[in-house]
Predict the 3D structure of the following.
Amino acid sequence: MRTAEIKRRFLAHFENNGHTVVPSAPLPAIEDPNLLFINAGMVQFVPYFLGQQTPPFRRAASVQKCLRTPDIDEVGKTSRHGTFFQMNGNFSFGDYFKEGAIPLAWELSTKPVSQGGFGLDPEKIWVTVYHDDDEAFDIWHKTVGVPVERIVRRGKKDNYWHMGIPGPAGPCSELWLDRGPQYGRDGGPDADEDRYLEFWNLVFMQYEITDVRSKEDFRVVSELPAKNIDTGMGLERMASILQGVDNLYEIDEVRPILDRAAELTGRRYGARSGHAATESHPDDVRLRVIADHVRTALMVIGDGVVPSNEGRGYVLRRIMRRAIRAIRLLGWQEPALPLLLPVARDCMAPSYPELAADFDRISQYAYAEEDAFLATLRAGTTILDTAIAETKRSGGTSLSGEKAFQLHDTYGFPIDLTLEIAAEQGLRVDEEGFRRLMADQRARAKADAQARKTGHADLSAYRAVLDEGGPTHFTGYHEVKREAKVRALLSPEGVMLPAVGEGDLVEVVLNATPFYAEGGGQQPDQGLITLAGGQAEVYDVQQPVPGLIVHRARVVRGELRAGEESFAEIDVNRRKAISRAHTATHLVHTAMRNFLGESATQAGSLNAPGRLRFDFNTPGAVPPGVLRDVEQQINEVLIEDLEVHAKLMSLADARASGAMALFGEKYGDEVRVVEVGDYARELCGGTHAARSGQLGLVKILSESSIGSGVRRVEALVGIDAFNYLAREHLLVSRLADLYRARPEEVAERVEQTVTALRDAEKELEKLRAQLVLGNAGALAEQARDVRGVAYVGTEAPEGTAGNDVRTLAQEIRGKIPASRPAVVAVAVRNAGKASMVVAVNGPAKQRGLSAADLVKLALSGRGGGNADLAQGGGVPADQAPALLSAVEQAL
């Protein structure tokens, strides 16, 4: 049974049992600050489990895209560890509980294939329950009929589920399939988790937890508002069972990638491995890593993430580089992704057709990342070769842990490659030192991550207001002021207040409002809320829970009381300026795609009064000529004065109309589409100008990189753009007057001036060098005999360039008779610091003197170079004489 068919049967089974089928959320966990990626099927339903939102259904089923990397080093070594996976799940929000979830799972698992089930043998299914969950035990035994000997009680480590962060949790019950003695020992899941394969986990979600320190160490805060069901059946796990293969790497969505990698590297998968994962040959483990990671990269880039050095982008980069490294270890030295990624696309497109449609963009980022990593490997190999040579030259037998860590941390050079190359050269690597530095880095990262993990903030006061009065009615699309009732007043800490007085900070909830809450890159409205007895100035507007608009304000006079009537009025000039910027952002987005292609998708934005910031995905810098074309096309649209209008439609209709949706955004069944004539069409909840002509002018100020594959454009709109150009005009006019030239000649004249200044600076450098080097002969003649060594210690003029100092030291050394042992030390002061160069000739080296040793002695271990010439510095400028004295005393 193919994976796509398993997915179809799962959803059909639960849809026939009264469940609403919910589409998968994107992999990036946009709405949860504790997660980089969605790691479980229930993540998009967390607000329902916690009671933060009212679910639009009592029962749901989904197949959620997930990504987990904590066990990334186990990928390929076991039958159950993968990075990307799909989780079949059925959910109940206060509807059925254990008595409903258990029979539904058993029915689908054991129902014959001909009747739409999976056809598993009931006699081969084992069940585990939480150690004190007698209710689940009895349902399995008395209602379903599973023999007592095949029901196993287990503790928190195995049968209590949570996300690893504060949130919903509860005991669970798992279904396991006995795959037979060829996979391991008899005795159930406690005896062998390779032979007994878990394929479904039923979580009885009934508690909220916090202070999560480990899988078993956490604190239960309270019971959830309702008892819920959250089940997870790994789609890949079930596919491996129904397709009769040993592990998830051999199913129909993964095996073709593995086979292609084996073909490229000349390996024969499975030839030297047993059935059990513990019997896998290292080559097979590497092939599985390649197949898993290439598929994961496809899915992650497909959901809008691009490789970078932080956050989600770093996770993606690490996964891709592990795949590239694995195939190189198997002997393939050429770029591999152009040969593997299309195979992954063909495997996954039946379930996710958007991957085929968007493959040009996906492959562009993937191939660029591989090219960059191959360059990194080449650079890292050169640096490693130098370190190995230095180690051998100094008589060492081990490469330091610091050097191995530097290669890994700074250059992305894998430690296993460092070990391999060092071993080929007869050197060991201080692995203990490397591991210690890695552990220190992980500890710092973990502490930072923990500091950012605040869990799900206490939103109970907001939920109470929402539950009591329903969502706030937003009227700001059509009006800028209105009468409204004050539903609630809250302190900044979320405490309900009956009244507030002058000078107080307060959060005001109205039954209806024209104020736009910050969202979608658009800054919030500001304005006034006036009551009979007082007035508040609104400085921020937010939605702490979906549907509830909260006005953050300062009472400027009198008193505000909950329950009273008010008059809400926004700052119209601010709103208009922001709306113009937001419409301009849509135009920039469309124009960029017109000139750069469909891959130039939005990655973020800021719409502020009179200005915008637009981030978008593209592999390289945008040529200046393209920026000019983009700007011209946008302003031509403004001249056409196109109508801007918004309409509500279904998500399917919006996509069919060509409306652009943003990667990572989660949309409901009904969406708002904003159109600028026939030029731009985009899903958007923000406010906009009524016509494109109202923008007046759009001026692009800059284009720059903000990360790997992500660029940023900043622009001004309307009067702000006009004022900017007016200032530019005045500046050009002033320069034209100074140069006595026409405005169009100013750029050329400035270039001539800059060239002349640079030529003059070079000439000055030559004169300074001649002045410095002209004294070399005289200084050599003044060499003093220090214990049989001709020693010259001198200071170069302050500010002398480093190259000139080195040249001076060598010139002095060269003018001392070659038969006489000589040491030359030249110090220099520059920008408040002192540095020094030491030169040693051949006879002095024969006496055991080394320039590198002398520099390190004078600078307490700092500095570098070789026996002939070395340098160092960084000490206060007034220590320059002391450096020269230290060298002399060491002779």
